[in-house]
Amino acid sequence: MSQLPPVLTIDGPSGAGKGTVSRIVAQRLGWHYLDSGALYRAVGVAASWADIDTSDASALVRCTFDTRIRFVEQGESLRVLVNGSDATDELRLETTGALASAIAAIPEVRAALKERQRAFRVAPGLVADGRDMGTVIFPDAPFKVFLTASAEERATRRHKQLKEKGVSVNFDDLLREIMARDARDAQRAVAPLRPAEDAVPIDTSGMGIDQVVATVLGLLPSQEA
Ligand code: DC
């Protein structure tokens, strides 16, 4: 058994509810939380601030090393500071997600973020949310989950979320973007989106957040949960 603090990895495609579920589960357990997608998004934002072209891989890799990223708890919300500026709202944009997905396909960018992600493994434990948490970053994690939901269901949820924020987007465009991002994340050569062999798959279609949280917590021994 590893002497390192325990990790619960929660991987899956965008919009499967990973972020919300991971945050609540981390809170319930009193564990730390890693939103690994936010790191890729932060690099994307920093690159766009620096006018770096997405085809310029070496500049993007330099940018990954140079970008300072800090997570700051502010009441209920988690703010993300990129090079000292609050980039939380820009980070959540669909365009930033697409940019992050493109940047995340560059192997050297992934390598540059590896140790930063592993540094989040601090006692009493970590809930790590992403695409390759269980396969590449924390392959020895004792608890692994792979959350899925149909693309239509994920697009419906994202559409509702955006509408609540006052952002109006076309449903079909959203569905197309989600499917394109799934395909890019699943087909890239390095650390593609796929469940770890020892991950427990949970299809969240038709499930409420509370139900998913309870299912995930139910996988942990009672002394952890
Ligand atoms: O989870 P998210 O939507 O915030 O992630 C944005 C993009 O970052 C996602 O489309 C692919 C990439 N990503 C990744 O490649 N590996 C991770 N562990 C997390 C995110």
Automatic annotation (TrEMBL):
Enzyme class: transferase
GO MF assignments: kinase activity
Localization per record: Cytoplasm
Major place of residence: cytoplasm
Coiled coil: none
Binding site for ATP: G12, P13, S14, G15, A16, G17, K18, G19, T20
Species, as recorded: Stenotrophomonas mori
Domain Cytidylate kinase stretches: 9-219
Family of this protein: Belongs to the cytidylate kinase family. Type 1 subfamily.
Entry superkingdom: Bacteria
InterPro entries reported for this sequence: Cytidylate_kin, Cytidylate_kinase_dom, P-loop_NTPase
Protein name: Cytidylate kinase
Catalytic activity as recorded in UniProt: CMP + ATP = CDP + ADP; dCMP + ATP = dCDP + ADP
Keyword list, A-Z: ATP-binding, Cytoplasm, Kinase, Nucleotide-binding, Transferase
Enzyme Commission number(s) from the entry: 2.7.4.25
